[in-house]
Design a protein that fits this description.
This protein is α+β, with helices and mostly antiparallel strands. It contains 3 helices and 2 strands. A two-stranded antiparallel sheet has the order 1-2. A hairpin with a 5-residue loop joins strand 1 (about 15-20) and strand 2. The longest helix has 10 residues, at about 1-10. The chain is globular, with a radius of gyration of 14 Å. It starts with a helix and ends in an 8-residue tail after the last helix. InterPro entries: Cyt_P450_sf (IPR036396). It comes from Acropora cervicornis. GO terms for molecular function: heme binding; iron ion binding; monooxygenase activity; oxidoreductase activity, acting on paired donors, with incorporation or reduction of molecular oxygen. This is Cytochrome P450 4c3.
Amino acid sequence: MLKQVLKWANDYTLEGFYCLWLGPGHPYLLTFKPELAEVILNSSKHTTKSADYWFLIPWLGTGGLSLF
């Protein structure tokens, strides 16, 4: 799977991102351009945190992640 993900990253170099679906209803946006990540992270359109976010809090804490 890693080989395929890296191939897609190479295929979408100019766009700087692509969406990887892991199962039904689980899209992951993969971006590799800082300016695109900034736009996504500064957006207030989607403020609900996913289950993945809550799963990581015990290990990462809340220092680098916003709860609200």
